[in-house]
Amino acid sequence: MYNGKVFLVGAGPGDVGLLTIKAKKYIQEADVILYDYLVTDEVISFAKDDAELIYVGKKAGQHTLKQEEINQLLVNKAKEDKSVVRIKGGDPFLFGRGGEEALFLVEQGIPFEVVPGVTSAIAVPAYAGIPVTHREYASSLCIVTGHESIDKAIVPWENIAGIETIVILMGVSNLQEIVQKLLKSGKSPDTPVAVIHHGTTNQQKTVVSTLAEVNLVSTSIHAPAIIVVGKVVELREKLRWFEDKPFFGKGILVTRPILQHNSQMPEFNLKLQDLGAVVYEQPTIKIISPESFDELNAAIGRIKKYQWLIFTSVNGVRYFMQQLKVCGIDIRQLHGIKIAVIGPQTRLEVEKYCLTVDYCPNEFVAEALVEGLKGYDMNGKHILVPRAKVARDVLENGLREQGAITHVVTAYQSVYCKGERIKQLLVEHKIVVITFTSPSCVCGFCSIFEGEDIQAYLSGVKIACIGPITQKAAVELNLRVDMVAKEYTADGLVEAILEGVKG
């Protein structure tokens, strides 16, 4: 026996939210992951940083490895005393060859577990508004493969034609032949048929027809797709829900910054996805450490000198707290120092450290913070502001006018990202809305098109900004802004896009 073990894991039909808790746990713990063509990047992203990722996907006519080679690879990795996860789309035991892999592991004396996945055979029709059974429509269900191997018995279509609901996996390339076999076996030409492409994802496309005519209307549907044959397809007209979401199928470009060694504001992406959008996360700037922390560290070293600590962003909080630890300063040294922030997300970040925010303006801009602090006696007060290397001087100047002694230090900086992928998405007309969450994101975006006609890329594209400061930066760079959040938060930006898309 070996200390290594293999986990045959079902990734579900595509929507990462349908991944099981157990599947996620084993993926996070795995030393080695072998994954298929239909396993999404979102699922793979749960892997730990040092996991070995091996793509073994198969498409029609394109096999990365033969099945025998995959079997042996599972054994070899397990014999290295590693935890090996084999991820398959859908369920590993439903036309996934998981049974073959399990038998091979048994023959080689390799311990294994099976983690069932939500099968696309039921989940995909459900996302298209089609229940595969219904008391008044269908009480029998058959799931078959439409991709038959030449070395095994063919599907007995003549025996299953009488079943009320037939779900066919991997059959889109053989659709014409399948239709002919069902008609020949006695299935009525008027039987409703649905062909569902990229089911449970925000690229889902559903074509509804009849058995007699489905070949004529499904020419735009390609694999991966699922075919549903039966009267239950009629229920889609009343029960469709997924494709009726307000942003369904609309490509939204998220240009939010990348924070070094971390991910920032993923809730924004999730909110857009929950509303049906196809989210393309292509940051235009990356948040990184400054050239030197000397200035910030020196300020931290004399932290008791300050009466106020002001944070203008989540990044400022994170880098300040990081350097507080690096400098060996006990957080209790902040006792007696008042804290002001801009925005609810910055407040939440401060509160993670069990610190209380003394002031946060209702309007999340530096001007509002300056105005609000007039209610405090700032004359002669020493104020520390850890912020980005390049930022507006509104806060610094406004507080000095109130008599404060303001010390602005660089806690982080932003650098522009390459944007070839953004250009490609725009050229392919996959983007409907571009979102900007800061002036620096706008500048980073425009830098991608230096020397080119940026307007030529933006035909038919709307621009949404998180607030007036970001809007001003966009307008100054000759961008037309269509939507501005009333509340300068991620939720506010989502609401603005909702209104703009409806309009």
According to DSSP, the number of beta strands is 23
Number of continuous helical runs: 20
Shape: elongated
- Could you give the order of strands across the largest sheet? 14-16-20-19-17-18
- Our measurement of the CA-to-CA distance between the termini, rounded to an integer number of angstroms, reads 65 Å
Total number of domains:
4
- Helix content bin: 25-40%
Mean pLDDT, all residues: 92
- Main sheet properties: 6 strands, mixed
Shape-level CATH architecture of the largest domain: 2-Layer Sandwich
CATH class of the largest domain, anyone? Alpha Beta
**Unreliable stretches covering 5 or more consecutive residues:** 260-265
Structural class: alpha/beta
- Beta-strand portion reads 15-25%
EC number: 2.1.1.107
Domain Tetrapyrrole biosynthesis uroporphyrinogen III synthase: 269-495
Protein name: uroporphyrinogen-III C-methyltransferase
Organism: Candidatus Desantisbacteria bacterium CG2_30_40_21
Describe the structure.
InterPro entries: 4pyrrol_Mease, 4pyrrol_Methylase_sf, 4pyrrol_syn_uPrphyn_synt_sf, 4pyrrol_synth_uPrphyn_synth, 4pyrrole_Mease_sub1, 4pyrrole_Mease_sub2, CobA/CysG_C, Siro_Cobalamin_biosynth. By secondary structure, the chain is α/β, with parallel strands linked by helices. It folds into four domains: 5-118, Cobalt-precorrin-4 Transmethylase, domain 1 (3-Layer(aba) Sandwich); 122-243, Tetrapyrrole methylase, C-terminal domain (Methyltransferase, Cobalt-precorrin-4 Transmethylase, Domain 2, 2-Layer Sandwich), CATH 3.30.950; 251-284 and 417-502, Rossmann fold; 294-415, Rossmann fold. Helices cover 32% and strands 21% of the residues. It is elongated. It starts with a strand and ends with a helix. Residues 260-265 have low confidence and may be disordered.
